[in-house]
Amino acid sequence: MLTPDGTRLEVWGDPIAHSRSPQLHAAAYAALGLDWTYRRRRVPEAALVAELAALTPAWRGLSLTMPLKGAAHRAAAWRDQPAELTGAVNTLLLAAGGPKGFNTDIGGIVRALQERHIDGVTRGRIVGAGATALSALVALGELGADRVEVVARREAAVRPLADLGASLGIDVRAVSFDRVEHPAVPVTIATLPGDAAVPDAAADALAANGGLLLDVVYGHWPTALAQAWVRADRTTVSGFGMLLHQALLQVRIFVTGEPDAAVDGETAVLAAMRLALMGD
């Protein structure tokens, strides 16, 4: 385990006032007995490099949210495989040789779904084709999916997902929102912004055979898709689960240097983080 000599951490993004990461991380470090600070800072994408350069050795790491994940990927001196696959970094561990970049969103999605007994799937669906959809695709691949339907407004937007899917052995099919019937899948991952408008007819068609819905949104709840799942009497999961589990992986990175190395008393740490998320 790394010596915890760095004490300052932050989450950066633009906007950032909505972020729940400070509550999650504060609970984790309190449970671990570490006197570390974790705050939020509004950082526009164009300012990321300058802000990084201004950090002192007292800084241990950063969490990155939109729109900084691509810029953080470019700024990282080293990247883990999930970050390389998706071109997105949401965690920077500040090191002597330059920042180390990680993508914990994928693990967050996988763990959130496994908590709901979604594992060993062969098919899945993603709604939306933005940056988070790439992490969703890798996550479905880790869960065993070899066929994924991507619902998007523009077929061209699905091309990066199709290319990534081909490299992972996943058959990615682009589907428009106006399709009236979809094949049955055990899980749907929605990656649209929380305020995205989805016509009721399209949302209901997706819900009809969509299995469990994991919507990465947690600030605008319920979303239009979540409401359709409720109308169809199907299970919905907000983005809180993904947020919780990706944050635990970040805590592992900041404390041990590795996302796969559990921290001491991790069950209690996760419980404290979950309580902070529920109680805020």
Summarize this, please?
The protein is of the alpha/beta class. The protein has helices at residues 21-32, 48-53, 69-75, 81-86, 105-115, 131-142, 159-168, 200-208, 224-231, 240-256, 266-279, and strands spanning 8-13, 37-42, 59-64, 78-79, 91-93, 100-102, 123-127, 147-151, 171-175, 187-190, 212-215, 236-237. The protein has 2 domains: 8-103 and 241-279, Leucine Dehydrogenase, chain A, domain 1 (Rossmann fold), CATH 3.40.50; 117-234, Rossmann fold.
Secondary-structure blueprint of this entry?
Elements: E1 8-13, H1 21-32, E2 37-42, H2 48-53, E3 59-64, H3 69-75, E4 78-79, H4 81-86, E5 91-93, E6 100-102, H5 105-115, E7 123-127, H6 131-142, E8 147-151, H7 159-168, E9 171-175, E10 187-190, H8 200-208, E11 212-215, H9 224-231, E12 236-237, H10 240-256, H11 266-279
Parallel strand pairs: 1-2, 1-3, 4-6, 7-8, 7-10, 8-9, 10-11, 11-12
Antiparallel strand pairs: 3-5, 5-6
Structure commentary:
- With 280 residues, this protein is of the alpha/beta class.
- It has eleven helices and twelve strands.
- It has helices at 21-32, 48-53, 69-75, 81-86, 105-115, 131-142, 159-168, 200-208, 224-231, 240-256, 266-279; strands at residues 8-13, 37-42, 59-64, 78-79, 91-93, 100-102, 123-127, 147-151, 171-175, 187-190, 212-215, 236-237.
- Strands 2-1-3-5-6-4 form a six-stranded mixed beta sheet, with helices on both faces.
- Helix 5 (105-115) packs across helix 10 (240-256), helix 6 (131-142) packs parallel to helix 7 and helix 10 packs across helix 11.
